[in-house]
Specification:
The structure holds 2 protein chains of 2 kinds.
Chain A: H1 14-52, H2 62-66, E1 69-77, E2 80-85, H3 86-95, E3 103-111, H4 114-145, H5 150-164, H6 167-179, E4 184-186, E5 195-199, E6 202-205, H7 213-238, H8 241-249, H9 254-261, H10 263-282, H11 286-289, H12 305-309, H13 316-325, H14 331-365
Antiparallel strand pairs in A: 1-2, 1-3, 4-6, 5-6
Helix pairs in contact in A: 1-14, 4-7, 4-10, 5-7, 6-7, 7-10, 8-9, 10-14, 13-14
Chain B: H1 5-11, E1 29-40, E2 43-54, E3 58-62, H2 69-76, E4 86-95, E5 98-99, H3 107-113, E6 114-117, H4 128-137, H5 144-157, H6 161-164, H7 177-190, E7 195-199, H8 207-220, E8 225-229, H9 233-239, E9 242-247, E10 250-256, H10 257-262, H11 267-273
Parallel strand pairs in B: 3-8, 3-9, 6-7, 7-8
Antiparallel strand pairs in B: 1-2, 1-4, 4-5, 9-10
Classes of the chains: A mainly alpha, B alpha/beta.
Chain lengths: 368, 278
């Protein structure tokens, strides 16, 4: 066949050119995101690996993962350049009977980040528990019990607005409410705050909880609530109406119907989406800045329940903030910065992966 | 009325309760409706309906889509309470002589007496056993032996026992559509209601499964009063004793099924039955 006579032959036209250009642009934009992501992850992984891993067995720098932050001392001794953490430095001096050695000190640059890891862990666990309880409860109320009307619309709007509140504002809210105002039970009448006697020689003092885990938990939980509520309502809606009607028609109370034939099927979705949302919130620095985070703590939080709740903690995001902007920058702090960032990234990824695996597992269990 | 629905039930004569024992009493109407008006918001869905449904018989509600037959059915166990904006404007529904809109009536006790099978079969995504035992378990029955008994009896009652007795603990969702619908029927009779409402129970089933369910309906009327909504006129003809024809929210005609199908009084009924509209 003569190619000239082929009516379907390729022709270059304006429309074709415009299409190529448009798709080129879209492709470029997509690849640009990939490039940025690769760069962020690449830099952190490459630079952080030097701190978290090492070349000789056991290949993981356990000191960095399990020790508390220490001040690093860099000095010259008998012609050798030495780097020692605070404790080792003092032992070194004592062993040689030396009082003073001329040394440069770098804050937070030795030791490890164990208190930050545990601190972040406890912050995530506690806020997750609170956010799930309040969030799932209110989602059940909103979508199952409440009469759909203006009041519920208003509540939904409020929740939506909550999602738009900047994290630093949540931090300030937590500072005002939990750190400075929430009541504590004490064996004395605090004259500096409003207090009410509750009998048995105890008073309810509105002196605030202070900077502690409990304050951080509630602040983070409030921040995660919009995500948890939205995810929970979505999961509840996905449960077929027939399950509810079927149980109600058998003489179940509304709560029985929800508990036995709605919640079990909605829970997987609720949990996984919520965990994902909370993992995101766990990375926030601003909400814990004023409510829970300490620059320095020697050990992981512990003790009895009240002691535990009343303790401030170190946390990975706040630690990164401190060592990147609150102390002099140098090669030694940079190692800790990237190392901490890598561990943090790993932790958040692990939480997200857990939620995704959980979702796949539970999806397979409940199908209809 | 001070007594709850349930306590009133207990004081009723055995025959009137439509229990499995004793001679079925077909003379007393089981459900009486007096000048009922029903609204979805501003939509006047049922207009001045008055009818009586006899005990231990199958009563079919027929009529074109949107005529209000399902709405009326869902009034009997107050399922319409779940839909916002619905209300009874006027009139009364009495079951066993008790006005079910009375504030003293507990919907939970009512729904135990008035079971329902839905258009779309809705077994719970649990095992067959758990599906049947569910109604008793929510009443607090934990006795394993009693549950076993009821499960077997209900499945036999729903003509399903032989098909599923070896797989009671597998998911009910693994059953065929017709079997699933019979699980729903078994689930409804497990709580020993006196009335079973069926909302187009066969509309999603193939002819063979439909025949089985119809056979079952025929069997069930010995022990239960059955009200069935259907789109399928042959079905109404085959399995009902009484038929009520609805059109645009009104009851046009009600009578013995043979009479409705062979010699209806109203022209509209005749037009609908002969397929001239609907």
């Amino acid at each position: 066949m003569n190619p000239k006579s082929n009516p379907f032959a390729h022709q270059s036209s304006g429309a074709r050119l415009a299409e190529s250009a448009a798709f080129g642009l879209f492709r470029g934009a997509t690849y640009f995101i990939l490039l940025c992501a690769t760069m962020i992850f690449g830099v952190i992984v490459v630079k952080g690996s030097g701190t978290v891993f090492k070349a000789s067995p056991p290949f993981v720098n356990w000191t960095f993962l399990t020790a508390s932050p220490e001040t690093l001392y860099v000095f010259e001794f008998e012609g050798k350049k030495m780097e020692l953490g605070d404790k080792a430095f003092r032992e070194f001096k004592a062993a040689r009977g030396l009082d003073e050695i001329e040394a440069e000190s770098y804050a937070h640059s030795a030791g490890g980040i164990w208190p930050c890891i545990t601190g972040t862990f406890w912050l995530v666990i506690g806020s997750m528990g609170i956010a799930l309880f309040i969030g799932v409860s209110s989602a059940i109320f909103l979508s199952e019990y409440s009469q759909q009307g203006r009041m519920v619309e208003l509540i939904r709007l409020a929740i939506l607005n909550l999602a738009g509140v900047p994290s630093i504002v949540f931090g300030l809210f937590g500072l005002g409410l939990f750190v400075h105002f929430m009541p504590v039970v004490a064996g004395f009448d605090d004259p500096s705050t409003p207090s009410f006697p509750i009998g048995f020689g105890h008073w309810l003092n509105f002196s605030g909880w202070g900077i502690c885990l409990a304050s951080g938990w509630f602040t983070l939980a409030f921040m995660a609530l919009p995500v948890v509520i939205a995810a929970s309502e979505e999961s509840l809606k996905a449960v077929p109406r027939g399950f509810r009607e079927g149980s109600l028609a058998l003489g179940a109370t509304k709560w029985q119907a929800i508990r036995t034939n709605v919640l079990p099927y909605a829970l997987p979705g609720m949990l996984t989406s919520s965990i994902l949302g909370i993992a995101r919130v766990a990375g926030e620095t601003a909400p814990i800045l004023f409510t829970a985070a300490y620059v320095m703590r020697d050990s992981a939080p512990g003790g009895g329940l009240l002691d535990f709740l009343g303790q401030g903690v170190m946390a990975l995001p706040y630690h990164i903030y401190v060592i990147s902007s609150k102390i002099p920058q140098n090669e030694f702090t940079e190692r800790v910065q990237y190392g901490t960032a890598l561990v943090f990234l790993g932790l958040v990824t692990a939480i997200a992966m857990t939620s995704i695996l959980l979702r796949i597992r539970m999806r397979n269990r409940y199908r209809w | 009325m001070n007594a709850t629905f349930e306590t009133r039930m207990d004081t009723l004569p055995q025959a009137a309760r439509g229990s499995q024992q004793g001679a079925p009493d077909t003379s007393d109407p089981m459900i009486e409706i007096d000048h009922l008006d029903f609204y979805y918001g501003a939509n006047h869905a049922l207009r001045d309906i008055s009818l009586q449904i006899p005990g231990h018989q199958v009563t079919a509600f027929i009529g074109p889509s949107g005529c209000g037959k399902s709405t009326l059915l869902r009034c009997f166990n107050r399922m319409n309470d779940l839909i916002e904006g619905t209300r009874i404007g006027n009139g009364q529904i009495r079951i066993h002589g008790i006005d079910i809109s009375d504030p003293a009536v507990d919907t939970i006790a009512l729904r135990r007496q008035v079971g329902m099978v839905f258009q779309k079969s809705n077994p719970f995504p649990k095992s067959i056993y758990e599906n049947i035992a569910y109604g008793l378990q929510i009443q607090g029955v934990r006795d394993r032996r009693r549950l076993d008994e009821v499960v077997e009896k209900s499945l036999r009652g729903a003509a399903l026992w032989d098909e599923v007795k070896d797989r009671l603990h597998t998911s009910a969702l693994g059953l065929s559509g017709g079997q699933q619908q019979r699980v729903c029927i078994a689930r409804a009779i497990a709580v020993e209601p006196s009335i079973i409402l069926m909302d187009e129970p066969c509309s999603a089933l193939d002819p063979i499964a439909t025949a089985k369910v119809e056979e079952l309906i025929h069997e069930l009327k010995k022990n239960y009063t059955i009200v069935i909504v259907t789109h399928n006129m042959q079905q109404a003809g085959r399995c009902s004793d009484m038929t009520a024809f609805f059109y645009l929210g009104q009851l046009i005609e009600m009578g013995k099924t043979e009479k409705i199908f062979t010699n209806p009084v109203q022209k509209q009924t005749e037009d609908y039955i002969s397929g001239r509209f609907g």
